[in-house]
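Give me the fold.
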Amino acid sequence: MPGYRTRQLVVTIGGQDYRIRALSDLQQFSDPLQVAERLGISSAQWSLFGQVWPSGRILAEVMATIEIGARRILEIGCGLGLSSLVLQGRKADITASDQHPLAREFLASNARLNGLPDIPYCDLHWALPDAELGRFDLLIGSDILYERDHARLLAELIERHALPTSEVILADPGRGNLAAFRDALLAQGYACTNMPSQPHPGDPAPHRGRLLRFRR
């Protein structure tokens, strides 16, 4: 046994069902070698990567219809990888990334569950530059601005890995750090479209989510 329990969900995105291996609940925790602790992931945060959140579902719906073309795409804080799975199914050039030590394993498992090829994955620590990752045409993320300093760190990461002409799409449930992130990207030369995101029928009320699209 791995020390935590999982369940399998069926999530419908763009009219297509995706089988998702997730943690059983938010009470799951297993960090026997203190890997997560050394990465700054507390016991209270440990299980958050392993759930399908409303913002993640909203981002995945956008990815089901967005123009792909030849764009190189990076998902930041992929968690279980729902948006990356949708993009892989559409044969996009997608790279998934996260900081959680189990994200790679769950992403690979979910790709197999859906009959998809392995998705390229990067352990991406926001404060540590990665010279080998390169730059992307489209950078996406959902529900990743947990802490106050995340707005600055995420903006700096995007500055390192976005092409001069690029797009950034962020789905956020309204945690309160969105304005600082928006201002940081405006300072990088992006124009921003900010709109309410459409909740799923099963999402709890009230829904305060936003979908931000940045282009430059």
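The first strand starts at residue 6 and ends at 13.
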